[in-house]
Design a protein that fits this description.
alpha+beta; Butyryl-CoA Dehydrogenase, subunit A, domain 3; about 55% helix; about 210 residues; elongated
């Protein structure tokens, strides 16, 4: 009974890991990490810019009820990207890979538990490794979130190409709606890692040497 309770706990941890990994993948594709308001700029620079880790989208008012949307994707050869975005790109990519690897290890450990395999050292090592990977992935996402927030608080600018029609620094800027999604991804990843590391097989699953009677 205790073994299946632990297995169910690890299944819940796997669900948290899956949610965290999905949210991390979603936030990588969204542009609303930073929101720039360009109110005093002259057209065509006037409007709104949403800056993400892999693309920037500008919203220019055409009329009272419509906006023109234009997005530009980044590449590794773009030298105008600041250091914080470049590092955040690598952190988010590493987090997605580590989270995926952690999921594979957790599935392997769960299969061994539900199949009745009771090699304590092997199973615990699988869950421990998965937990460590999940915690590291969550920490990477959290670093990207905190660095993005710090850049907004310092009102740092970005020298985009003139064709983007985005000034070096806006009139005002704030963190976008993607940041809570990324923070939630980091929370679920780290929660999953902590739950997974706390796993222990019940004592009755340990194999003891058989003592022969004389």
């Amino acid at each position: 009974m205790a073994m299946f309770e632990n297995a169910n706990c690890q299944a819940a941890s796997f669900a948290f890991n899956t949610l965290g990994w999905m949210f991390s993948m979603i936030c990588m594709g969204l542009a609303e990490w930073r929101v720039w308001y360009m109110e005093s700029s002259s057209a065509p620079s006037q409007g709104l810019a949403c800056i993400g880790m892999w693309k920037v989208c500008t919203y220019q008012p055409n009329s009272l009820h419509s906006r023109k949307i234009e997005c530009h994707r980044y590449s590794y050869s773009d030298t105008y990207l600041p250091l914080d975005i470049r590092i955040a790109q690598n952190l988010l990519l590493a987090a997605s890979l580590l989270g995926l690897l952690g999921k594979v290890l957790m599935v392997t450990g769960l299969r061994r538990l539900y199949a009745g395999h009771r090699q304590k050292d092997t199973t615990c090592n699988l869950f421990f490794a998965a937990g460590v990977l999940s915690i590291i992935a969550g920490a990477f996402i959290l670093i990207a979130v905190m660095w993005n927030h710090q850049s907004v608080m310092n009102e740092e600018g970005i020298r985009f190409p003139p064709s983007f029609h985005i000034p070096f620094r806006p009139d005002r800027q704030e963190t976008g709606t993607t940041v809570p999604v990324a923070a939630l991804a980091a929370f679920f990843m780290m929660l999953s890692g902590l739950l997974t590391i706390s796993f222990q097989l019940p004592s009755d699953s340990q194999v003891y040497p058989e003592v022969s009677k004389v």
